[in-house]
Design goal:
It is a single chain. This protein is 12% helix and 18% strand. 10% of the residues are buried. The protein is an alpha+beta fold. The chain contains one helix and seven strands, in the order βββββββα.
C-alpha cells in the first residue's frame, strides 16, 4: 500500500508512524469508496480492512446488514460464521457478498482468521459454492 490510515475509537495510539501512515478519529460511515470520520472529514480509499478489536461494533453499516453480536461461537445470520445471510427469511440481503471475518470467540485467532479469509476469497471467486439460506 502507498499509505495506511488507521481509525481509533477512544484515543490515538500515538506511535511515531512512518510518513505513509496516519491516525484519524472514529470511522462513522462508509459509502462506496468514501469513508466518513467523527471529526467531520471524509476520504476515499481503495481498500478497507476493519480491525475492530474484541468489541464488535459496526455503527457505519446499514441496520439491515449490521451484525449485532458479542464474541460467541454460533453467530446469527452468518453461514459458517462468516457469510452474511441476512435478516429476512429467504433472502440474502447482500447477495452473499458480505463477509464478517473473525467474529467468533477468540481461540487460535490468527490461524482461524486466515482460514476464514481464504474461505471467503474462494466463495467470491466461485471456487466454492454455498447452499441457499433455507438449507443452512
Amino acid at each position: 500500500a502507498k499509505s495506511v490510515t488507521m481509525s481509533w475509537r477512544t484515543q490515538p495510539m500515538g506511535f511515531a508512524w512512518p510518513d505513509t501512515m496516519k491516525e484519524v478519529p472514529l470511522l462513522t460511515k462508509v459509502s462506496s469508496k468514501t469513508c466518513y470520520f467523527k471529526d467531520g472529514h471524509q476520504e476515499d480509499f481503495d481498500a478497507i480492512i476493519l480491525c475492530t478489536g474484541y468489541r464488535h461494533n459496526f455503527p457505519f453499516m446499514a441496520p439491515d446488514i449490521r451484525l449485532e453480536a458479542t464474541n460467541t461461537y454460533n453467530l446469527p445470520n452468518l453461514y459458517r460464521n462468516i457469510q452474511w445471510y441476512g435478516t429476512r427469511a429467504g433472502t440474502k440481503d447482500t447477495d452473499g457478498n458480505l463477509f464478517y471475518i473473525g467474529m467468533t470467540d477468540q481461540f487460535y485467532t490468527y490461524t482461524m482468521f486466515m482460514m476464514q479469509g481464504l474461505w471467503a476469497v474462494h466463495v467470491i471467486k466461485g471456487i466454492l459454492s454455498v447452499p441457499s439460506r433455507e438449507k443452512c
